[in-house]
Amino acid sequence: MQNLRYVGKNLFIEKLSIKNILKKNKTPFYIYSENQIGFNFLKFANTFKKSNPLICFAAKSNSNLNILRILGKLGAGADVVSGGELLKALKAGIKPKKIVFSGVGKTEEELKIAISKKILLINCESESEAKLINNLAKKLRKKVSIGFRLNPNVDAKTHKNISTGKAENKFGLSIKNFKIFLKTIRSFKNISLDALSVHIGSQILNDAPFRKTLNVMSKLIKELKLNLKYVDLGGGFGINYTDKEKPINLNKYSKLVHNFSKKLNCRIIFEPGRSIIGNTSLLISKIQFIKKGTNKNFIILDAGMNDFMRPALYEAFHKIIPISKNSSRMRGKIEFVGPICESTCKFGVYKNYPKINENEFVAITNVGAYGSSLSSNYNTRPLIAEILINKNKLRYIRKKQNLQKLINS
């Protein structure tokens, strides 16, 4: 994050000291850099500017209404996977013709919303879904633009829980089955096959799987002589969560995408989420207790896996840094853990960590993607606040949930 730095011993986000923010805000809470959000989106758009793609932000990565508004004003569309996300994107001011609806299990009610709102595309993922859309459109006297999500059987070499493009994954239709079903699709009078869609996984740091997928798509489209308005190439572009990781270099891939779109005379759609929002946010947490263990010491935070699920769900690593620097070091191994009554409520193991004490504060980094959007009320804990920083200004984009209201609900 370019907008995160230490000034002296104190951690700053944009032009505000987190130490000062803590004076008026109880932990845990999320804090975002608005300028980092804008920087990331415009950098992505500039990388692919020759292709002039429609960039549909993956709302599942972060569905905060204010963040969707920021991205919408920058020109983003939305990739949604539920009726709720669709309605939220519209409320944020994103135009219907910039919204694509993905997901393997859309309900009849959700599809009716999508049809009535006249969104750009519904990306089908099964034969049954296409039949249902055609029947609904017929009843509503509409003709609906659809895409069909393919499963290209490409291994993205990412964590098994975020792989979506292999034959064993639930997403999309196999190329073999798509070919068989194509004649049926063409016989449907109330849907128009305007796009093919593909998304092979998440947190991909190498462009090789994307290049392989492009080749698969190009070959198939030519073989079937498809005349498409759009090809939706999904997202999945990774960021560096550790110092050893390098973010994916998209410059070479952008040239391939440009040539691909020119040859097929279609517009490209992308669905980035993590690469836009991942490195824009911190989770600020207080050290409740430090407890000696047999082989390590436990740093017990007030943030739990209900606030931030990724380490428990994906075994994901997120660097944890102190709010105030200390040149002294702690001896031995420490593990940051949370208060939830689950062994998976933990955030990382360190050796030779800067000295920290009870009642001090740390920041869990790069939590903008799948942080707040995966949070829950598990253990009857309120959803935490989200704060947006723009230079030296602060505003609340989600207030902490009221405990009494939660108890009564």
Task: Give a short overview.
This protein is α/β, with parallel strands linked by helices and 409 residues long.
Question: What does this molecule look like?
Answer:
The chain is α/β, with parallel strands linked by helices and 409 residues long. It has two domains: 160 residues, Beta Barrel (Lyase, Ornithine Decarboxylase, Chain A, domain 1), CATH 2.40.37.10; 242 residues, TIM Barrel (Alpha-Beta Barrel). 29% of the residues lie in helices and 25% in strands. It contains twelve helices and 21 strands. Helix 5 packs across helix 6 and helix 8 packs parallel to helix 9. About 2% of the residues have low confidence.
Q: Descriptors for this entry?
A:
Lyase, Ornithine Decarboxylase, Chain A, domain 1; alpha/beta; 409 residues; 2 domains; TIM Barrel; 12 helices; 8-stranded parallel β-barrel; 9-stranded mixed sheet
Oligomeric state of shown chains? single chain
Q: List low-pLDDT spans.
A: 158-166
Full CATH superfamily name of the largest domain: Alanine racemase
Strand content: 25-35%
Q: What distance separates the N and C termini?
A: 38 Å
Q: Which fold name fills CATH's third level, the topology of the largest domain?
A: TIM Barrel
